[in-house]
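Researcher: We plan to redesign the surface later, but first we want a full-length starting point. Tokens attached.
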């Protein structure tokens, strides 16, 4: 019987919750028609795994693990999640009575000239007072204000958790992108060093010919220019590599001064193929979209919190303990005191403030809905852009691969002709310069293909 009454009271109280219930914002007008068959719900806590392992690069895996474990920015994001969860737990404290133990001891001297309504003389005296009281206050959540506060705090905590996953995704994606840029620089350095070795070899041959009077000095000067130009280019690539290394050190939470990576040119192996899957599922996986949706839920609950201020606040108060003028008799039966009774607070003024506060919360919800829609649009854009990058970079890589094969063959043929004396050194130099340019372009495009794959994985919300 008692359980039945409690259940009835709970249903009654929940039915009195003021403010709108959360409904996921409708985004069917901004998503492609083929996406509308499924309503996307937040799945930011879905396991994503170590997505970088699809590249089968042990050094990249080591760096990703180091970044996740040591990045200060990620540690700060984790601490922010702990704060939000603690705030959510604090909000539930209002469901329990506030019980406090108060102790007091005082000695007071009264005045002998106190004003009185009748001409009675009250002598001056000293009064001792000792008390030990337990105070209890409990607010009845008739209008659901506390429930809405808890709802808002929990949604905010969920949003913070989603932002943490978004921080992990951003961090690991940045690590992979910088890593592939660094490996592309390694490939360019390898090509430039081989080019410098060839050019220096021919420079020495031309120097011998010049000393023998077989060629003009302009030919030797041209060869020296090409060697110096290649050395300048290699210095620039080394600078770019060092910048990528320093950025990796920062992402991994390591001092740049002691962070080093051995050179290893990026290979010609194509990046892995990433299954795009169902678009609606992609929206569910995106932690930034999930965070935006949870913020909408929190702002919606805030409307109920603000609306509840229109209604009376009902509290139950009770106090009990001991009060005495002497310490020895403080805990005796005659020193016991108690009081109990409800209190009601009804707003009579300040209704304008409450009205505009409700209006402010509604505007905050509209802002959150707009931000959620923007997050969905950004997610769609990211996927479409990443798919376009992977497709066109694959086509570009194929064309540049053909160009590298042709330029390498042309350089070999012209070198043979030059050695037979059929063509001038400058023709060979032009062919060799073209081959170097295409080889560097090949390394850069290979890195961009890997980076575009990383971006696609990020756009899809991580692993799958």
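Model: Full-length starting sequence:
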């Amino acid at each position: 019987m008692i359980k039945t009454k409690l259940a009835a009271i709970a249903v009654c109280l929940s039915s009195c919750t003021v403010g709108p219930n959360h409904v996921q914002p409708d985004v069917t007008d901004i998503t492609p028609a083929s996406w509308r068959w499924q309503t996307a719900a937040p799945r930011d806590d879905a396991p994503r795994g170590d997505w970088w392992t699809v590249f089968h690069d042990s050094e990249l895996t080591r760096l990703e693990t180091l970044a996740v474990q040591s990045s200060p920015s990620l540690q700060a994001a984790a601490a922010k999640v702990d704060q939000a969860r603690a705030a959510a737990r604090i909000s539930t404290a209002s469901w329990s009575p506030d019980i406090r133990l108060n102790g007091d001891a005082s000695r007071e001297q009264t005045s002998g000239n106190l004003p009185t309504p009748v001409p009675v003389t009250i002598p001056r005296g000293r009064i001792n007072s000792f008390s030990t009281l337990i105070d209890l206050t409990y607010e009845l959540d008739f209008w659901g204000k506390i429930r809405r506060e808890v709802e808002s705090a929990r949604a905010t905590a969920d949003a913070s958790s989603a932002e943490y996953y978004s921080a992990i995704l951003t961090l690991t994606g940045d690590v992979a992108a910088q890593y592939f840029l660094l490996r592309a620089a390694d490939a360019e350095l390898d090509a430039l060093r081989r080019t410098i070795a060839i050019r220096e070899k021919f420079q020495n041959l031309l120097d011998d010919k010049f000393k023998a009077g077989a060629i003009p000095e302009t030919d030797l000067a041209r060869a020296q220019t090409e060697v110096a130009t290649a050395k300048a280019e290699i210095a620039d690539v080394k600078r770019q590599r060092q910048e990528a290394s320093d950025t990796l050190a920062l992402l991994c939470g390591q001092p740049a001064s002691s962070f080093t990576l051995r050179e290893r040119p990026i290979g010609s192996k194509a990046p892995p193929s990433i299954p795009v899957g169902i678009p609606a599922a992609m929206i569910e996986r995106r932690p930034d979209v999930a965070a935006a949706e949870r913020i909408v839920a929190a702002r919606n609950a805030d409307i109920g919190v603000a609306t509840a201020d229109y209604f009376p606040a009902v509290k139950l108060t009770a106090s009990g303990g001991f009060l005495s003028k002497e310490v020895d008799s403080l805990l005796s039966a005659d020193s016991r005191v108690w009081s109990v009774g409800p209190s009601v607070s009804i707003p009579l003024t300040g209704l304008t403030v409450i009205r505009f506060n409700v209006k402010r919360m509604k505007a905050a919800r509209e802002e959150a809905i707009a931000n959620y829609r923007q997050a969905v649009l950004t997610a769609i854009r990211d996927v479409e852009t990443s798919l376009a990058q992977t497709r066109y970079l694959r086509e570009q890589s194929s064309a540049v691969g053909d160009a590298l094969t042709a330029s390498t063959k042309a350089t070999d043929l012209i070198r043979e002709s030059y050695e037979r004396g059929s063509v001038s050194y400058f023709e060979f130099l032009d062919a060799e310069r073209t081959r170097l340019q295409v080889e560097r372009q090949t390394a850069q495009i290979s890195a961009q293909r890997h980076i575009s794959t990383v971006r696609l994985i990020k756009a899809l919300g991580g692993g799958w």
